[in-house]
Structures are given as C-alpha cells and as structure tokens.
Design brief:
- By secondary structure, this protein is mainly α.
- The protein is built from 9 helices and no strands.
- It is globular and about 45 Å long.
- The chain starts with a helix and ends with a helix.
C-alpha cells in the first residue's frame, strides 16, 4: 500500500517515470502477497503513468487489467477510476470512439453503483470530449443536461458546466 500511495503521489506531481517505477514495484508486491484490491488499484496507476509518459499502448494493458480486476472484486470506485483514466488516455491518443465507449462503460457502472453525481460527472466529461471531436454536439448537450439535472456539486458540477462552452467553441471553429 505504501508503494501504491507513492506511485499516486508521484503521478499527481507529474513524475510519470517515478510513478511508473513505484507502481511496477507495487503491482509485484501486491500480487506476491495476494492483495488483489491493491493490485487492481495500482495497475490502474501503472497504466495511466506509463501512458502519460510514453506510448499509450504501454499502459493500456495494465489499465484494462486493473479495471477487470476491480470489477471482479466488486470495487466500483476503483473500476471507475480506471475507466476515467482509460478514456482519458484513449482520447489523448486520438482514439475518440474508443474513448467515448470506455467512458460510456464507466457511466453504466457509475449508475449501478450510485456514483453518477460524482465519478460519473468526470466520465460525462470524458465521454463528451471525444463526442465533440466526432461532431456529436446534440449528444453532448443531452448528456450534459441529464447529468446537471442530478445537481452535482463542486468540482463535479464544474466539469459538467464547462462542456456547453466547449461545444460552442468547437462549433464556432467549424
């Protein structure tokens, strides 16, 4: 758990190389002692840090395996963190349709787990961005309106309130 926490801290401080190294060690340690919940969480960290520092392909495997393990263990918050990172990495690499689908998969889980107003708001943002690039402005408007009707608060609301402005900006650029 200490190595997993270190990996997250390094990633949040934009030290992706250090985060990747710590996460690799943490995955191995968690696997060795059978701490599958920690293994799922840190695999997601490993995948994200690896993808943000180099080719996305390097991190997609750990991201996906972390999500699968979290789902198998019934840890929805961990799986949702994985879907958030997976959809973000795919979008950063220009894989818009895959990014939108990963976010949609996460949104389904967020609804089932009762986390639509929180982690689901991030996923709406992560789904909207690739949909904007794919020219699906009406769908972005629908998703945003639906999510805002749940009255999310704080950073979760801010994520959603930004989307209509981005849609207008994209339409203006075309």
């Amino acid at each position: 758990m200490v190595l997993a926490s270190l990996a997250i801290a390094l990633m949040r401080n934009s030290d992706m190389g250090g985060a990747t190294e710590a996460a690799e060690r943490a995955v191995a340690a968690a696997h060795a002692v059978g701490a599958r919940d920690v293994e799922a969480d840190v695999a997601i960290t490993l995948g994200a840090a690896s993808s943000y520092q180099g080719p996305a392909e390097a991190g997609l495997g750990p991201l996906r395996s972390g999500v699968r393990l979290a789902l198998d263990l019934d840890f929805p918050a961990t799986a949702l963190r994985g879907y958030i990172n997976l959809s973000d990495v795919l979008e950063l690499r220009g894989r818009h349709a895959e990014a939108a689908q990963a976010a949609a998969d996460g949104l389904d889980l967020a609804a089932r787990a009762g986390l639509s107003r929180t982690l689901g708001s991030y996923l709406i943002g992560n789904q909207a961005e690739p949909l904007l690039r794919l020219g699906q402005w009406a769908e972005v408007d629908r998703l945003t309106a639906q999510a805002l009707s749940a009255e999310p608060e704080g950073v979760f609301a801010a994520t959603l309130l930004e989307l209509p402005g981005r849609a207008c900006h994209h339409a203006w650029l075309l």
